[in-house]
Inverse folding.
């Protein structure tokens, strides 16, 4: 599990990014100014603004432009100036991308997606290798565009992925540290804490397996609290005031900056009457965080699935989403390659996302540059964009649950796809649509009127309407009342009226209530 | 209800359902085209109207005339004296004249390189500060020294100078007036507009020394015409097919027809009968200009910056003199001067079928969308087919996906979903789209004298390319493309084409419609493994509608209308002209038509040809033999 086998992949990805940076020098700045890439809380341009103020010993939050974490400032002030020596900034972002990809590689190689501690999927052999998953992340156009646009959300992405890796490899404390860093940068990753605790708990080293979940959760929460407080304290020392709270997390909580983005919040809050604003802010945030509890409990056996679904939900419903978020959610979804055959709307969801990815910039252009459209054009497309993503995430949830259900009931829900004699001719092999198969000497078909077996044999079954009507009646009779009927036949009798052709049939069933065999219980 | 549900469910599994989409797709195309042809009828078009109340066109008395005619003659004399001088000398002369009027003068250098040619020059411009304004808004009067045809715009420049002198006397302007005199109508004005909006590449185009406020409108005067004229031709197409606000065109029509008693014309239909025939021709010519997206006058460069602009050209022989045109410009400027906010009330998307009849976007957009939707329908059908076994009920091929599928092929009634082999088709489609960068690069970086030979070589290469790729794929892949893979190939390609065209339809309706229309044969491309004749006939049909063939045919048609197509060298010259125009558009105006042709249309065509040439059935036989 080293760099040897992935070095080629990483260098190809780095070369592609460097080539784009070098041969299209206008591209990074173009992407940086796109609302799809940069949001008020991640924009690279705003970071430059904050950096300028910081380097001139003015509070970076004074301008009302910079809404990002204070610790990013010393990091970027270490680098040479981005406008004169952009190469170092590019290098940093490329390295962050590769670090994220390597984390993904390790997550995929661990096989956690299909084989967690409490659950093993029947399809676990159909997973993609870490190499493929990392390649999908690195060569995803959304990831590349994000890297070129240089929003600071890539650091959050990297921290989240490392938190997951560390949790899987049995380092709960490091994992919590990484999550704290992600939460410190962007706040919303704190919602990932419960499923991450579960994941870390399931994947502890057997040696320290003695404590139960609650104390474990206590310790991890304490770790997160401590590391977050430390980060805040450092931030306080850096900026000299607690102002950064309201300027970073406050902006996300109260949505004061209504710059358009690909999410659903901005338009809603532009239209909102001020008196309802705080109520709906509460509702929106409650909605976003409400998924955490339900998913963690329902998919308890697969914490990684919970995290994946939550990440996809964030990229739809968080206050300032961008394509960086969908690149993260599209990066973790391929870990669940084994449930893809169970997903039903992949084509539709993929087409919707693809179409809206192209129509979005076109409509934004009509609104902002050509002036011939208006805000509704762009908002309508962000709705479609969110619809595509919602389809994907709900389909994935369905597939994960269905996969679990099939393991719980292995015999249920098989659909025959075809059958054929085996090569030696001794047995019959039946294959099901989920690519599992069963062998036996006889195939007995009892699959009803629209029988697949029959249609495979070339004579599709149909229903025949009989020219007759039936009426059924049941009656509870005592033993004495039964006697005359029993005297005809102890079990059943039938007969037809010779004139009308009416047919009558009755059967007798002795039940436990009447024959006295009912036990005391 | 349950019965209805079960009927629907049975219908869902009905194999006949899979036969429906091709007809649906064809219907979409037919309805789309018929829709377009219906647009010129009275029921589908509307009369134009002034939507912005502040404009009040033709409601002010215009005073230009009288002694200004003498001024005009004097300026024309001055302009004539500069006629054969160099660009710098002309600008020196103009600067002296304009400074004499009392305006601030600025000059700007620019150099563009395209197709091995250099387009350099110096713009001269002057700003008249509004006595009542605060320099936050401005209106532009453009008179290029030479018009788009390269004719000396003698009267236009003289008229603009006269108007500038006349405007200077009035105190009613609330917006600054900028007079721009670029040396040509194509590169110079683009450099000026770019620099005005700080969107220029400062290594080639100099920044402007003086500026005014936000541009609210621009009128260009193209007046090389000598003597009296009958009416004005209003040219309104902008770069990349964007159009100015309809209110501007309406106002000018209103002033010209109502106040001046002049005729006005659009799209070179002089003598418009307002019957179906003329309306359709006007509309189609408008669509052609929009689809090509080239600059048709100095006003075109303003429109991408959301500055509404038109060019006025006097035409015909009548009784109007240059003072009439001057009054028309004055009236238009007085209307623009009234504006309280940017023109936004009226339409930006319209097709004009007569100077006072138009079709609005809601009425015409469905036709392009229907054509684009036909690709999406076929893409979905191909996706479904690729998943339903091998689709043997529709196509004759029998050997396919898995080895042990004899049983399945006999039962088309309940097709089980087959695993799709996505990677190879997806890879081919993506590779074809990236391959499009190659012709795009070649035709935008070749010196102009090599463009025509290069294009001919490319056209020949284009004919051999599909079989070449087809064989290459079959050689390198472990086995030839299966029917399922061909379906997926077509599905992805059409999905992308449908997506690009529906996005494009919102930006440039005509281009999307035209590309969609010539791409329709791609919808019905499919492999004919057992009919070599049909296969090659269809491949030949696809070659007729290939981008290269369409460009050649368009060039020939253009050459014949210009009377150049008599001999081969005339054709070659025209081809060189067309291609270098395209390269010029790409480099200077920022045209995206080459991108659409080479990175959207050409790859889709290439993949379509691959699908037709695919031989899933016969290839395996050849290998086993």
């Amino acid at each position: 599990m080293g760099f040897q086998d992935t070095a080629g992949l990483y260098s190809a990805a780095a070369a592609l990014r460097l080539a784009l940076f070098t041969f299209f020098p206008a591209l990074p700045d173009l992407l940086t100014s796109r609302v799809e890439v940069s949001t008020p809380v991640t924009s690279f341009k705003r970071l430059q603004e904050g950096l300028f103020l910081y380097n001139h010993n003015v509070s970076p939050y004074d301008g009302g432009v910079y809404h990002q974490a204070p610790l990013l400032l010393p990091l970027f002030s270490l680098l040479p100036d981005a406008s004169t020596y952009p190469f170092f900034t590019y290098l940093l972002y490329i390295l962050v991308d590769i670090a994220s990809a390597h984390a993904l590689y390790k997550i995929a190689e661990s096989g956690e997606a299909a084989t967690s501690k409490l659950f093993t999927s029947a399809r676990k052999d159909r997973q993609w290798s870490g190499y493929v998953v990392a390649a999908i992340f690195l060569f995803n156009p959304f990831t590349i565009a994000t890297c070129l646009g240089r929003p600071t959300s890539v650091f959050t992405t990297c921290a989240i992925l490392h938190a997951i890796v560390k949790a899987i490899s049995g380092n709960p404390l490091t994992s919590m540290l990484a999550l704290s860093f992600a939460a410190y940068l962007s706040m919303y990753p704190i919602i990932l804490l419960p499923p991450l605790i579960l994941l870390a708990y399931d994947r502890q080293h057997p040696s320290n397996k003695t404590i139960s979940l609650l104390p474990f959760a206590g310790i991890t929460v304490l770790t997160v609290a401590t590391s977050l407080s430390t980060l805040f304290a450092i931030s306080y020392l850096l900026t000299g005031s607690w102002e950064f709270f309201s300027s970073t997390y406050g902006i996300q909580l109260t949505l004061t900056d209504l710059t358009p983005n690909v999410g659903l919040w901005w338009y809603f809050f532009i239209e909102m009457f001020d008196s309802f604003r705080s109520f709906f802010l509460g509702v929106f945030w409650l909605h976003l965080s409400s998924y955490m509890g339900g998913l963690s409990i329902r998919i308890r056996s697969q914490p990684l699935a919970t995290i994946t679904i939550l990440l996809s939900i964030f990229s739809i419903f968080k206050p300032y989403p961008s394509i960086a978020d969908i690149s993260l959610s599209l990066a973790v979804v391929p870990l669940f390659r084994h449930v893809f055959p169970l997903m039903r709307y992949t084509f539709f969801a993929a087409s919707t996302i693809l179409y809206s990815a192209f129509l979005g910039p076109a409509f934004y252009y009509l609104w902002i540059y050509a002036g011939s459209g208006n805000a509704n054009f762009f908002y309508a497309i962000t709705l479609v964009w969110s619809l595509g993503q919602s389809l994907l995430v709900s389909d994935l949830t369905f597939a994960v649950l269905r996969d679990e259900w099939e393991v719980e009931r292995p015999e249920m829900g098989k659909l025959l796809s075809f059958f054929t004699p085996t090569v030696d001719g001794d047995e019959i092999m039946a294959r099901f649509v989920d690519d599992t198969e069963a062998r036996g000497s006889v195939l007995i078909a009892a699959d009803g009127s629209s029988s697949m077996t029959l249609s495979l044999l070339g004579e599709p079954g149909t229903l025949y309407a009989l020219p007759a009507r039936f009426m059924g009646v049941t009656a509870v009779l005592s033993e004495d009342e039964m006697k005359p009927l029993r005297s005809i036949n102890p079990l059943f009798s039938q007969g037809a009226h010779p004139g009308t052709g009416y047919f009558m049939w009755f059967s007798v069933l002795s039940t436990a209530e009447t024959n006295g065999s009912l036990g005391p219980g | 209800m349950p019965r209805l549900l079960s009927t629907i469910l049975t219908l869902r599994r009905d194999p006949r359902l899979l036969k429906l989409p091709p007809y649906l797709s064809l219907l979409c195309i037919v309805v789309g085209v018929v829709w377009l042809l219906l647009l010129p009828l009275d029921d589908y078009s509307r009369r134009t109207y002034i939507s912005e109340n502040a404009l009040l066109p033709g409601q002010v008395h215009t005073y230009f005339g009288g002694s200004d005619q003498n001024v005009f003659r004097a300026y024309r004399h001055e302009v004539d004296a500069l006629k054969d001088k160099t660009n710098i000398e002309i600008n020196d002369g103009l600067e002296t004249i304009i400074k004499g009027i009392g305006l601030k003068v600025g000059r700007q250098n620019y150099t563009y390189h395209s197709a091995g040619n250099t387009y350099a020059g110096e713009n001269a411009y002057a700003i008249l500060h509004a006595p009542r304004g605060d320099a936050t808004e401005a209106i532009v009067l453009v008179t290029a020294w030479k018009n788009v045809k390269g004719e000396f715009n003698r009267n236009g420049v003289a008229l603009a100078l006269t108007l500038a002198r006349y405007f200077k006397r009035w105190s009613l302007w609330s917006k600054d007036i900028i007079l721009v005199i670029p040396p040509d109508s194509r590169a110079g004005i683009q450099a000026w507009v770019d620099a005005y909006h700080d969107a220029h590449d400062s290594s080639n185009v100099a920044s402007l020394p003086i500026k005014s406020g936000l541009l609210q409108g621009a009128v260009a005067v193209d007046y090389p015409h000598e003597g009296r004229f009958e009416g004005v031709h209003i040219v309104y197409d902008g770069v990349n097919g964007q159009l100015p606000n309809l209110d501007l065109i309406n106002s000018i029509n209103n002033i010209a027809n109502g106040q001046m008693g002049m005729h006005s014309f659009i799209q070179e239909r002089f003598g418009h009968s307002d019957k179906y025939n003329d309306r359709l021709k006007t509309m189609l010519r408008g669509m052609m200009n929009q689809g090509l997206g080239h600059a048709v006058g100095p006003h075109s460069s303003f429109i991408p910056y959301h500055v509404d602009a038109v060019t006025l050209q006097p035409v015909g022989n009548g009784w109007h003199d240059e003072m009439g045109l001057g009054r028309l410009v004055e009236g238009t400027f007085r209307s623009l001067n009234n504006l309280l906010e940017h023109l936004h009330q009226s339409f930006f998307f319209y097709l004009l079928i007569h100077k006072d009849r138009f079709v609005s976007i809601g009425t015409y957009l469905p036709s392009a969308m229907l054509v684009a939707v036909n690709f999406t329908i076929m893409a979905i059908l191909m996706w479904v087919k690729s998943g339903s076994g091998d689709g043997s009920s529709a196509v004759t091929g029998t050997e396919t996906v898995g080895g042990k599928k004899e049983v399945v092929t006999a039962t088309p009634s309940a097709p089980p979903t087959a695993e799709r082999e996505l990677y190879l088709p997806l890879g081919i489609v993506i590779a074809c789209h990236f391959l499009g960068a190659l012709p795009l690069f070649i035709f935008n970086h070749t010196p102009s004298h090599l463009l025509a030979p290069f294009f001919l070589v490319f056209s020949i290469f284009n004919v051999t390319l599909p079989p070449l790729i087809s064989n290459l794929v079959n050689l390198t892949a472990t086995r030839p493309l299966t029917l399922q893979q061909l379906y997926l190939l077509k599905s992805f390609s059409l999905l992308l084409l449908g997506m690009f065209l529906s996005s494009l339809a919102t930006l440039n309706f005509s281009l999307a419609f035209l590309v969609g229309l010539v791409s329709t044969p791609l919808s019905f491309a499919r492999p004919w493994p057992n009919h070599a004749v049909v296969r090659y006939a269809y491949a030949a049909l696809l070659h007729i509608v290939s981008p290269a063939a369409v460009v050649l045919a368009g060039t020939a048609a253009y050459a014949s209308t210009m009377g150049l197509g008599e001999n081969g060298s005339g054709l070659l010259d025209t081809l060189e002209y067309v291609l270098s125009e395209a390269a010029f558009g790409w480099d200077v105006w920022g045209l995206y038509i080459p991108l659409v042709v080479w990175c959207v249309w050409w790859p889709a065509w290439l993949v379509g040809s691959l699908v037709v040439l695919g031989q899933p059935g016969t290839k395996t036989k050849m290998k086993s033999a």
Observations:
- The CA atoms of residues 21 and 87 of chain A lie 9 Å apart.
- The mean pLDDT of chain A is 88.
